[in-house]
Structure formats: C-alpha cells, structure tokens
Amino acid sequence: MRPQPEPDYTHGSIARTAILLVNLGTPDAPDTPSVRRYLKQFLSDPRVVEIPRAVWSLILHGVILPFRSSKSAAKYASIWTAEGSPLKLHTERQARLLRGYLGERGHAVEVAYAMRYGNPSIDSVLDKLKADGCDRILVVPAYPQYSGTTTASIWDAVFQHYASVRNIPELRLVKHYHDHAAYIDALRDSILDHWKTNGRPDKLLMSFHGVPKRTLMLGDPYHCECHKTGRLLAAALGLTADQYLVTFQSRFGKAEWLQPYTAPTVARLAKEGVRRIDVVCPGFTSDCLETLEEIAMEVKQDFLVAGGKEFHYIPCLNESSRWIAGMADIALQHLHGWPTGPEPGLRDRMARDAQASREHALALGAER
C-alpha cells in the first residue's frame, strides 16, 4: 500500500503526547438506514464473527441486515437522548474530563476519543492527532476485560490505519485493566453510592457482555478476566459467594455462548423467591444500548414478570469523578517515560478543561 502524503511539518516543533480512548461504537441516528450501516460495519468484522466469510456474507446480507436493522433501530430510539447517542455522549465527556483532570495535575496530554464502528472513526481521529503534532499515542480501549472480539479489533484498526502512513508515531496499547485497583474502586464506590440511597438487594448480578463459548475453548481470556473482576469487586464490597452472581448477556444466534445467561438467571431467581436484585454491568464503562435497553428495560421485565418485586439497574461508571481519576491512574502508568509537561499552546485549553473537571466534580457532590 502506497503511503499517503504527510501533513506540513515545521522543524523544531514540539512532539506532543496523546491518549486515544476507543469505544465500540454507535449508529449516527436511531433510524433504520443508520443502524443498517452500523450493523454492516460491526458484523463484517472477522474478529466479531468467525464464520467463514462466504457463508456469513449470505447470512448477513440476506437475513440479518434486512430484518434486524428496523428492530434494532426501535431499540436505539428507546434510549436515544435529545443530545444523541448515550454511548457517544458519555465517551466524549470522559475524554474531555480526563484531559482536564490530567491538565490540572500538570500533564499536557491531548485526549481524543474514537469509535471502532461508526463515528468519529479511528482513521479520522488518528489523522487529526497526527496533524496536531502528536507523535506519541496511547490507545486505551473502553473495554476493561480483553477479548479478541473487542480489544484486538481496535488494534487491527489502528495497525491497518498506519499501514498507509509514512511517518508512524510511537504507539502504546493498553490491553486490559480488569483487575486494576482504580477500576475496581470506582465500581465499588458507584455501587455503594446506589445502596446508600436505595438500600441493598437480596442479590447482586454482575452482567457482562457475552461471547461464543468457542472463543473460550480457543484461548480467549475474556471469560477468566470477567470472573476475576467479579471476585475482586465482590471482595471490595464485602460480599459472600451467595450474595452475587456473574452472568453474561446479549446472546446472538444458535451457538452456545458463555453461561449463565443473564435473562434466564433473573427469571429463575424470581421464581425461587428472590424479591430484589440489583444489576451492574462492569464490562461497560459507558451506558449504551446493552445496559439501558437490554438490562434496564428487557431484563427488568423478565424479572418482574417471573414474580420478582424490585429491580434496580446500577448505571455504568460514565463520568463519575472516581472513574475519571481512575482512568488517569491507568493512563499515567502506561505513559510512564513519555514527556507530558505543559506546553504554552495548550495552557488555555488545559485551564478550561480543568475548570470543567472541577465543576463536574462539584455537581456530582451536590447531587449526592
């Protein structure tokens, strides 16, 4: 592949450091054409679906896209906000607040966000970072637990982008932070805050996004990392083994996926007489379709219909001040050795972002 022309360069300019936060993605709008485009890109990724390409292409274009796009669009419409996609809004805010938090502590680091599928694309954001003079980039997936279906796909996209770049920046990649103390502590605080206001449940479910069981058998560490997160979080909350469960949601197709499945589990608990369950989704750092619609609506209905009395969905970490600080801890560990000192051109924006970070923390405190 022939390298593309490089942006204009001024000798003596400062090489800057950047963090790229990458989330899964979202359609541009909650309508059928937008969702169809998004699903086509997402489900065409061989990391996501490992069925032979010729067979899968027939299924995808002949069955899934024609029939699933409108149904998925209706689901997206049920959680869409006046400002747009919840996942995109939360990711954008996380990036801005992280930049402000780091700037307040003297680290002049650019922080941008991109989506693996949809917009803003990884390609477009990496191009902008290069044009802005960023020659050191730390890629941070929004997925705490590593999987070949998610984190590795981000790396594929990054490496594919640089296959056509002549002057490649220095790169670092965060593989996972499923057991990082800052992440576990942020989850713990979020749950304890919910319990302080709403009381404790009979059972806490930690629902992670599912993947086919075949991936586990082939060596994907995702299942093990989800369970380690569950064990560490339960210990941080002081829970005994009978007070929580790790389950897996979002099963697709007829193949066996990681078990136990979330929806049948909540129905079973209700039938066994469990009156109240709380559900948290530690595999998602931003609320999205899978948490706001699948868990907070569909799974809630499953529990209540089966005889349960009280269902609580505990929101994702989103822009909680503890998580912004936790993201900073994780990033700074991986930035070690790279210069992050303040540079004159960024001071004004750092000050604005730092002020936004302080105002956000104060607003959260007032809400509590």
TrEMBL record:
- For this protein, what is the EC number? 4.98.1.1
Asked if Ligase is a keyword of the record, the answer is no
**Which compartments is it annotated to reside in?**
Cytoplasm
Enumerate the GO terms in the molecular function aspect: ferrochelatase activity; metal ion binding
Pathway stated in the Swiss-Prot or TrEMBL entry? Porphyrin-containing compound metabolism; protoheme biosynthesis; protoheme from protoporphyrin-IX: step 1/1
User: Which EC class, in a word?
Assistant: lyase
Chief site of localization: cytoplasm
Which BP terms does GO give this entry? heme biosynthetic process
| Pfam families assigned | Ferrochelatase (PF00762)
Binding-site residues for Fe(2+), renumbered to this chain: H209, E290
Fetch the SUPFAM superfamilies from UniProt: Chelatase
Please provide, in alphabetical order, the Gene Ontology terms of the cellular component aspect for this entry. cytoplasm
Substrates-to-products reaction catalysed: heme b + 2 H(+) = protoporphyrin IX + Fe(2+); Fe-coproporphyrin III + 2 H(+) = coproporphyrin III + Fe(2+)
Is Metal-binding included in the keywords of this UniProt record? yes
Do you know which InterPro entries this protein is assigned to?
Ferrochelatase (IPR001015), Ferrochelatase_C (IPR033644), Ferrochelatase_N (IPR033659)
The protein's job, in short, is: Catalyzes the ferrous insertion into protoporphyrin IX.
Family per similarity comment: Belongs to the ferrochelatase family.
HAMAP family xrefs:
Ferrochelatase (MF_00323)
The protein, known as = Ferrochelatase
